[in-house]
Every structure is written in C-alpha cells, then in structure tokens.
C-alpha cells in the first residue's frame, strides 16, 4: 500500500514481513525488512529504485495502481544490488526505453546482473536532473557505501535525501516513519545494520557524510531504501553514523566462546567474574557462538573495547562456530579493539594460539598470550581464569 511522504513524493515499496535471512543466509532479520521504492510526481514522473525480484509482480501491480507505467519519465537506480533492482527486468519489459539514471559503475553492475543494455544515463556527483515545478534531483555518488555503484540523490525544494542503503534498517513496520516506531527497536536495527554491513567502510562513511554536510543543504527527510523514513530530527541518524564511523566503543568486554564438555564455558564464566571483580563499571557479556545469532555477536563486538575468544582444541584446531566468527571479523576490519583468548585442551592444545593469531590478523591488539586449562578446569585453574579476567579488565 503506497503512502505519501511529502507533497508529491510517495512510497511505493514492499514490506517483507516474513524475511528472516538477508544476503542469502548471512544476515538475520528478526523484524523482516522493507524494500523502499519512491515515486515523485511532478511535471516529470520519477521512480527511485525498485524491489527484490520475488516481489516484482506485486510491486508492478501496486505501482500500476499509483501511476500509468508509460507516464514514468525517469528511473533512478541508486544501487544495483538485487534487493533494489530485482524488479527492473519485469518493469523494463513494460517501459523499455525509459531513461535510467545511475553511476558509471552502476551501468556495469546492472548489466552484470540483468544482461540488458537499457537506456542508461550516467551521472556523477553534482549532476542534476530537472523534474519540473522548479525542482531538481542532485546526484551524489556514494562509492563503496557499500558497493562501487552506490549513489544517493537529493530533491531540492522538498529537501529529501534518498540515501539508498545508508541510514537504513532491516525493520518492517506498519508505521514507516522514525517518530512513530519503538525507538529501542529502531536503534537496535540501525546499529546491527551498521556493525554488520558498513564497518569495513567506516573511513569512507565519515568522509562522505562530511562532504554532504559541507554542501549545507537543508535536509527535512532522509528516505533510505530499507526500513523507516527519518522525518523527525532526521540528522540524528547522520550524527550516529559519524559516531559509529569513528572507532566506536562502549565500556564493554565481550566473551565469545564455544564449548564441548563445558570446560571452556566454565573458563568463560570465571573470566567474567574476574573482570567484574576488578571493575564493576565494565559491561561484560558472554555469548556461546554456536547458540547465539552471529550478527548479534558482531554487533556486540562492534560495541566492545575488548573481545575474548574461547574454544577448546579439537583436531589441532578450533570449533567451527568460533572459526566462522573469526572469518567474519577478519572481513569487517574492526579498528582500535583489544583481544585475547582462552580454551581447554587435553593434549596438543593449539586453540588459544590459533585464536590469538587470527585475532591479530583481523587487526585486534593482542593483550597477552591467553590462558589454557588442561582437561576439565580445576578450582585452581578457574582461579587463574579469574586472575586473567582481572588482568584483562585492567588493560581494557
Ligand atoms: Fe546493498 Fe539494500 O542493498
């Protein structure tokens, strides 16, 4: 069901209430998501982005109720990833010659996905498109935020920034405006989205936001391509992004472990006790990586000053749930975080060194050599874990 955002701007997207995994199976979406497409009806009619292919028919049916498709003058493709471009194939069968505005990289990725040579109109930062009634769309390349083709556009007079993935959340809601939804839910989804998707590009986020703010354009609404639209104090999410992009930390230590026969779990709990005993102001959280959502763990690591990773030794290696988290954080490139490791062993005992080596390769500053416990930890071994926790707290 479409709705008006402001004046002649309408949301014509799809709410995907049922989605529980995004990016294949890589990203958990407990609250579903939305694929936001926008229709501007001025002297020229403009469609900004589409939706994921499984909703293509539904999208086009709904869009046809809002506007006769052959009166769409321009299509803006801010980003070629399938969740926003998936309906293009069906749509372009209906209106094949409609000019499609995108970046140079956009033409490559759209052609790469759909193998069609549509009427591409390449734009770069600062280019404008007049849409009548004195209004213009101004294009802003958002290269690597988060794909090479990513772009935003800004509608003058209405002062709306169509930011595409930036400032979005995987959050389906009946309300669709930031002032109408539960603020805790909203910000949980925002920080998860940032931590899991945008962390690798933090330096670019900071630079691009400063570039946009330097333009001194009034921003009344930020309309992202996922989740709710920011209309009340819209720059609050820009301020959050600046904070998150600059080596964000809370006074938190996350202990991420997996365990076979509960020994490494007991070590984790003893370490947590040691940290709390040394400094009650530190938030300590424990996560069994095989039972806890991977993206939520990444979000907690994003918030932490220090991360302790625990695994028993198995087959000269580490447990697979921990290996998966290590692979993930290697790609995300966290900065300015400390780490160490722990784990039980029976004979060869390689796990702790493997964990520390991998954390170092992932860019963490390693506090010490970690701690191991032979077989099932004794009271004395657990006391050593508490002392280890104290040392970590003092180095946090
Ligand atoms: Fe990069 Fe929402 O797609």
Can you put this structure into words, describing what you see?
- The protein contains 12 helices and 22 strands.
- Helix 6 packs across helix 7 (235-245) and helix 8 (263-278) packs across helix 12.
- It has 2 domains: 3-244, Metallo-beta-lactamase, Chain A, CATH 3.60.15.10; 252-394, 3-Layer(aba) Sandwich (Rossmann fold).
- By secondary structure, it is an alpha/beta fold.
- The longest helix has 17 residues, at 379-395.
- Strands 1-2-7-8-9-10-11 form a 7-stranded mixed beta sheet. Strands 17, 18, 19, 20, 21 and 22 form a 6-stranded parallel beta sheet that branches.
- Strand 10, helix 4 (104-114) and strand 11 form a beta-alpha-beta unit.
- The model has no long low-confidence stretch (mean pLDDT 97).
- Helices cover 35% and strands 23% of the residues.
- The protein binds MU-OXO-diiron.
- The site of MU-OXO-diiron has 9 residues, from helix 2.
- MU-OXO-diiron (FEO) binds next to helix 2.
Mean pLDDT: 97
> Overall 3D geometry?
elongated
Structural class: alpha/beta
Number of strands: 22
CATH topology of the largest domain: Metallo-beta-lactamase, Chain A
Radius of gyration: 24 Å
Summarize the structure.
This protein is an alpha/beta fold and 396 residues long.
Question: Which features would summarize this protein structure in a list?
Answer:
single chain, 396 residues, alpha/beta, Metallo-beta-lactamase, Chain A, 2 domains, 22 strands, binds MU-OXO-diiron
């Amino acid at each position: 069901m479409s709705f008006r955002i402001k004046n002649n701007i309408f949301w014509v997207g799809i709410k995907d209430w049922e989605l529980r995994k995004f990016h294949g199976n890589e990203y958990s979406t407990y609250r579903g998501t939305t694929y936001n497409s926008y229709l501007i009806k001025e002297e020229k009619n403009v469609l900004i982005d589409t939706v994921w292919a499984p909703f293509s028919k539904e999208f086009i049916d709904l869009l046809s109720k809002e506007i006769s498709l052959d009166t769409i003058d321009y299509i803006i493709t801010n980003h070629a990833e399938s969740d926003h471009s998936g309906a293009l194939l069906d749509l372009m069968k209906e209106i094949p010659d409609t000019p499609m505005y995108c970046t140079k990289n956009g033409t490559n990725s759209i052609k790469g996905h759909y193998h069609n040579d549509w009427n591409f109109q390449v734009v770069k930062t600062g280019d404008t498109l007049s849409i009548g009634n004195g209004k213009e769309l101004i294009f802003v390349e958002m290269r690597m935020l988060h794909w090479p083709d990513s772009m935003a556009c800004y509608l003058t007079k209405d002062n709306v920034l169509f930011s595409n993935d930036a400032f979005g959340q995987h959050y389906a809601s009946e309300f669709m405006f930031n002032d109408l939804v539960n603020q805790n839910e909203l910000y949980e989804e925002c920080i998860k989205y940032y931590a899991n998707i945008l962390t690798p590009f933090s330096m670019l986020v900071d630079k691009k936001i400063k570039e946009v703010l330097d333009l001194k354009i009034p921003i009344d609404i930020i309309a992202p391509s996922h989740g709710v639209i920011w209309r009340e104090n819209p720059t609050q999410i820009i301020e959050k992004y600046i904070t998150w992009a600059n080596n964000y930390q809370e006074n938190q230590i996350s202990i991420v472990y997996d365990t076979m026969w509960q020994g490494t779990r007991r070590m984790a709990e003893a370490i947590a006790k040691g940290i709390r005993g040394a400094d009650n102001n530190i938030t300590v959280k424990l996560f069994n990586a095989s039972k806890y959502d991977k993206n939520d763990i990444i979000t907690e690591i994003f918030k932490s000053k220090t991360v302790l990773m625990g695994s028993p030794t198995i087959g000269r290696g580490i447990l697979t749930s921990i290996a998966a988290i290590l692979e993930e954080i290697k790609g995300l490139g966290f900065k300015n975080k400390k780490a160490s490791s722990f784990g039980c062993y029976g004979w060869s005992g390689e796990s702790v060194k493997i964990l520390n080596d991998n954390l170092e390769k992932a860019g963490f500053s390693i506090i010490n050599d970690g701690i191991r416990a032979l077989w099932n930890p004794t009271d004395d071994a657990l006391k050593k874990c508490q002392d280890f926790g104290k040392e970590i707290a003092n180095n946090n």
